[in-house]
Amino acid sequence: MSVSMGHRGRPRSEKSRVAVLEATAGLMVDSGYEDLTIEGIAASAGVGKQTIYRWWGSKAGVVVEALAEGYLQMPLTAPADTGDLRGDLRGWLLGLKGEIEAPEVSRLVQAIMSALTSAGETSAAIHETLIQPIMDGLDTRFDAHETTHPAGLSAPPHFLAETVGASLLLRVMFARPLTVEWVDQLVDLVVPRSP
Predict the structure, then answer these.
(1) What is the pLDDT of residues 12-49, one digit of tens each?
(2) Which of 63, 72, 136, 173 has a CB 3.0–4.6 Å from the CB of 113, allowing a cystine?
(3) Residues 153, 168, 129, CA angle at the centre, nearest 5°?
(4) Rounded (10°) angle between helices 38-45 and 14-31
């Protein structure tokens, strides 16, 4: 699947396009988004940096397409299962806070959110590769909690999982911080403390 990101100028060379996406994925794994540069991608892919600027416009655009096409996997997972859903959700959200709020990563997250809000192949592909696995993991955690604590949830597990996922996405989309107070309020809402 070839995902268009609204490139300008001449049609892309498929060989160069793939080389850029593979190089981007490799460099992201090796050194992360903060140290990723257009110059580094171009050198690793064997193309001119103007080619990248012409076709993608920014490093965030290249990373979004690499994600959408499956060249790059983001290390975002659902909460671990220690048997304590409240503690697992809180630890997971606070861990995401540290990752998402780093300035460079924040710009990447905003680019991903922007791609998700557009209709088309890019949005669908990012949803399938990045968002759906997290939602599936949240569903699994809430289902497991309901099995072991039948009266412990205030709403159906799927609804509560969606509440967590949607709340997190909205917070990120509008660049609002994941404060400790917000995390605690969300956890209290979806998994009330035992009386």
Answers:
(1) 688 999 999 999 999 988 887 778 899 999 999 999 99
(2) 173
(3) 105
(4) 120
Residue 113 placed within a domain: yes
Global confidence as pTM: 0.70
Answer yes or no: are the C-beta atoms of 170 and 131 closer than 8 Å.
no
Q: Which residue range(s) make up the domain with 43?
A: 14-68
Q: Residue 21's domain is classified under what CATH number?
A: 1.10.10.60
Residue labelled with tokens 């990120």: 172
Q: Which amino acid would we find at residue 59? A: K
With tokens 């490799």, the residue in question is 26
Is 75 within the bounds of a domain?
A: no
Domain assignment present for 195: no
Residue type, 183: V
Residues 74-116: pLDDT tens digits? 656 778 888 899 999 999 999 888 777 776 666 677 777 777 7
Q: What is the DSSP string of 77-101?
A: -PPP-SS-HHHHHHHHHHHHHHHHT
For 11-23, give the DSSP string. Answer: PPPHHHHHHHHHH
Residues 6+ apart with CB under 8 A from 118: none
DSSP output for 134-155: HHHHHHHHHHHHHHH-TTS-SS
Do residue 40 and residue 97 come from a single domain?
Answer: no
